[in-house]
Design goal:
Two copies of one chain form a homodimer. The first copy, chain A, is α/β, with parallel strands linked by helices. Chain A is built from 14 helices and 17 strands. In chain A, strand 12, helix 9 and strand 13 form a beta-alpha-beta unit. In chain A, helix 4 packs parallel to helix 6 and helix 12 packs across helix 13. The longest helix of chain A has 19 residues. About 4% of the residues of chain A have low confidence. At the A-B interface, helix 10, helix 12 and helix 14 of A face helix 10, helix 12 and helix 14 of B.
Chain lengths: 481, 481
């Protein structure tokens, strides 16, 4: 009989289904081989390493001799690891600054010059370390990272993230038009060749030859076994305006050939949308451009989608593509407010992203909060006669609940990334990707009063908690923090 | 010749005028008798206790023998203390929860029952301590506090705040209609008598007789000299729906008699506005009700004002009353978005508030961030043809800059509270109310890179900083944290 190597005792909170929060007090959660073996109340006499646990169902599990038994903090709880489906590692360097511009000016003034510096792998490694460590401290166990156009820096980002224990999805960015000479690839052909090299390197084909390993010696133990699962390469055209049709079509073919995730941006800002229309008069919509290039699939995650039209949302649904909603970025770059409820009602998959540094905060808790606020404001606009945020057909807009927003930050993210069998909740067989939360941690921003139930503590954490409340982070059952 | 007792050396940042941020690197700021004696570059040979400092202007100041010389952290800076012009101490208890309702239901379901518990002074003292300590840690040196209807608990709040060193403005709340029996005053006459007792007690008239001192013995040193300046009593009708005309008129008279600040809520939520219209068909507007009662003066601060009409804004301007903009609360309670730029252009005084627990966060930095985001979204709405947030006459809406938002959180607050001669910036003669910020503090949420100028660090603090970056807080030149 197999035995569990890790047993968590205390309050477990997750969202096994949309809008329903399961709160299991006095639960036991057993982990075998990195996976959740069980998660429920216990009827048991012996809980010691080498002992056993009998569940309410009658099932009996042995505890390995070296089983680690972790009692959660008295008023703490464990939740599934948070999943960030959109963020830019190089932009962590200037996060918090540069919000005096909207998207297109912001890209050329702040972003491209900063990303261009990733030609220096030592510099890139330093920024990566900060970025990955910060997100882990905020409980982000899975993350879809944009790197830069530099293949080796992008490979290095994947190594650093995996090295530190994160479940990482990493994209080398493609740009072969409308970009400054210092930060633009020479041709579609070169960009495609580099992308192929990137994919092979990340998939472990050493023959592809990368300089990443050497350079990463700056603070990265390249010989150590990484704490986390191997990174996944992601096809990452920056967005339509910076990619020629030749490049996009080539990337679509590459994604198909290797069965890869695809990520990019869509319909974030009205100036951007007008530009895409100008660049692609042949396409019926912004979304349709990606579709025509083979880049809109059930493995595609496009960030923002603030101004998606009804026909575009239908196309998302038909292809099974997901929107990564990045509310803080949309507010800070003055982009707009996505109607998440409408997307969900129309069958469009939605997940959440931080979009550092369009959004300043690297925390997925922050993304949850901002999603709730944006949803509140959209609900006000929706019930009024003059139409504001696109078409308003359909049901009235009910603002997201905190349970729904938390679902988006966990299960929604897992679905968007195609890993819902693996992470997002604590269903049997899921990888144990988790955050241990302690509302009473030293310096905690939360005040709990006696007699407050776990759901009260959970809500306070959602609205007020920060990385000080992160008392532990697990990925694949391995404690990475 | 007088000598300074405290000398701060390093980077000083403040907003001596709206939208202009002054950044003084390598500055010296001298404090004599709690006031700013000078704040500028130094040309000097001897800076030691008992020595002297010669300023660029040629002026020479002696340093007292016991002068404390504080070198700011290498990449840190000092800013004026932040000023919260609207928050509710009793609501700190459930901050972070209860955002499933809009204002009126939220009041009856969550707020009134929680505030009713302040009849227990021990309980109230505990919540007060948490509330005041939290705000001080976030750099709030001046705060306009709503207490509850309980006179002694309100007096106690003032003592605790002053005891801990905060410049406190405290209101005993008035409610004599449309409130639950357990949390409603018996009559206008009783409410007025209690308010008079409150005012006298806070102003130090022991003969008024209060039980506050005894009960406050729970953790409050009532015999110790308070660290901060004495609290100021504020006339605080909760809002029109819970106050009879008799009560409001009486409070207006009381405010006039004692020359007191007045605070309340106005035009926060559309349901509330409709209710006021129903209750006061004789009044041309919500704001006009306060005006008719003598409660709209140049010492009045009304929170929210999201839906103020043009005639109401004109009335604010004519009376010299201020709006306390509480953006997080307006987002979380699904109230709406105030057009701050329009208020300012029309000559309405605006300050910022956290409005805990309509807003979850007790931090004025958070208020600054939320004000920027709301301003961004209003700017998008403003440039569009269908009118959304009231009338749109006048200039296009330029979103607030971070410097402007910071001004609102400092100078704007001081003006609203009628203490602009005393706090808000570092002008000569101002009380030294200040926050020492260290971006490199232990656990800091900010990543600085080499060569980043102070303005970069300041922006990162504005967008990403938290109480971990608070390395010191001064009120009246006294280090209170």
């Amino acid at each position: 009989m197999v035995a569990v190597e890790l047993l968590i005792r205390g309050t477990v909170i997750h969202t096994p289904s949309f809008s329903s929060l399961a709160v299991l007090e006095n639960a036991v959660l057993g982990v075998h081989d990195g996976r959740v073996a069980f998660c429920e109340d216990a009827h048991t006499e012996v809980i010691d390493p080498g002992g056993f646990v009998t569940l309410r169902t009658g099932a009996r599990w042995d505890l390995a001799d070296a089983c680690v038994i972790r009692e959660l903090p008295p008023r703490g709880f464990v939740v599934p690891g948070l999943i960030d489906t959109h963020t830019h590692a190089p932009q962590f360097k200037f996060a918090g600054t540069g919000y005096d511009m909207q998207l297109l000016d912001w890209l050329t003034t702040y972003t491209f010059p900063s990303e261009a510096k990733w030609s220096d792998l030592q510099h890139a490694a330093r920024v990566c370390h900060n970025a990955v460590r910060r997100t882990l401290r905020h409980g982000t166990t899975s993350c879809l990272w944009f790197a830069t156009i530099h293949t080796d820096a992008a490979v290095q980002l994947g190594r650093i993230a995996a090295g530190l224990g994160q479940r990482a999805f990493v994209g080398k960015v493609n740009m072969d038009r409308n970009a400054p000479p210092t930060y633009c690839e020479a041709s579609a052909a070169e960009s495609l060749a580099e992308t192929e090299r990137f994919v092979k390197l990340v998939l472990g084909d050493a023959a592809a030859g990368g300089r990443g390993a050497d350079a990463a010696a700056d603070g990265v133990c390249v010989d150590c076994a990484p704490l986390g699962p191997p990174p996944q390469p992601v096809i990452t055209p920056r967005f339509v305006p910076t990619c020629t049709a030749e490049l996009m079509a080539g990337l679509g073919a590459l994604a198909k050939e290797h069965n890869l995730l695809v990520t990019s941006h869509v319909s974030e800002n009205e100036g951007e949308i007008a530009w895409v229309k100008e660049l692609h008069p042949e396409a019926p919509s912004y979304t349709a451009v990606y579709d025509m290039m083979g880049l809109l699939t059930d493995k595609t995650i496009l960030a923002h989608g603030v101004y998606l039209r009804q026909d575009e949302r239908a196309l998302f649904k038909a292809r099974g593509a997901a929107v990564s909603h990045c509310p803080l970025s949309n507010l800070q770059l003055r982009s707009g407010m996505l109607n998440v409820r409408r997307c969900l009602e129309e069958g469009v998959a939605v997940a959440l992203g931080t979009d550092v540094s369009g959004g300043a905060a690297p925390s997925m808790l922050s993304a949850v909060r901002e999603a709730l606020k944006v949803s509140n404001m959209v609900s006000l606009a929706e019930r009024r006669p003059p139409q504001r945020f696109g078409e308003h057909e359909g049901k009235p807009y009910e603002p997201l609940s905190y349970a729904e927003a938390f679902w988006l930050a966990t299960v929604g993210g897992a679905r968007a990334l195609g890993v819902e069998h693996l992470t997002g909740d604590f269903g049997d067989g899921a990888a144990f990707d988790a955050v241990v939360v302690d509302p009473d941690a030293s310096g905690s921003p939360i005040d709990l009063y006696e007699g407050e139930p776990p759901l009260e503590a959970f809500q306070k954490w959602i609205q007020l908690g920060d990385d000080r409340n992160t008392a532990g982070v697990y990925v694949n059952g391995v404690g990475v923090l």
